[in-house]
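We close this part of the discussion by returning to an individual protein. The amino acid sequence and the C-alpha cells for this protein are reproduced below:
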Amino acid sequence: MPTFLTSKEDRKLIHAIVTRAEVLGLTTNILSSTMDITATHELAPLGLKAFLEADDFNFRHDFCGIKNCIDRATGRMRKNFVPRFTAPDEVMGALVNWCWNTKKHLDKAREIMILRERTKDKKPRIGFPQWKQDVHALMRRMWLELKKAEPEFVASVGRPSMPTAEAFLDTLP
C-alpha cells in the first residue's frame, strides 16, 4: 500500500506532470491523478523529470496507462502495464536480487539432495531425517524472502511473474 509520502522535489514534478496532463485534456480530476502518479512513483519509482519532459506521445502513454491500469486499492499496476518512465535501476535491482537468492536456494537444494542420497537407508535417531528438516527450513526461508521481495519486485515490473508468497506457503509440507 502506498503511503503517499514523497520529497518536496518529487511533489513539484508530480504536480507539473498532472498540470501538463490537464492541459492536454487527459484528466479533469487533479487530486485523483496526483494520487495515481504518487502511488505509482512510490511503489515503482518513475523518472519523473524524464516523464515530464517526454514528447506528447510517450507522455500520454504513461499518464493514460497509469490512470487506466492502477489498482487503487493496492497502488499496483494491472493489465501487465509497465510505465515507460519506470526507473530502470529499480527494475534491474529487484531482478538481480531475486536471481541471486534463487541461485543460493538452488545450490542449497542440491546439497540437500546429496545428503538424502547418502542417508536414505539410515533411520533417524529422533524425529524426521535431517534432509527433511533441511527441506522444510529451505522452503520456509524461500517463502520469507519471497514475501519480503514480492511488493518491490511486483511494483517494479508491474505484475507478478512468480508465485505469490501466499501461494508458495500453501505448498509447504
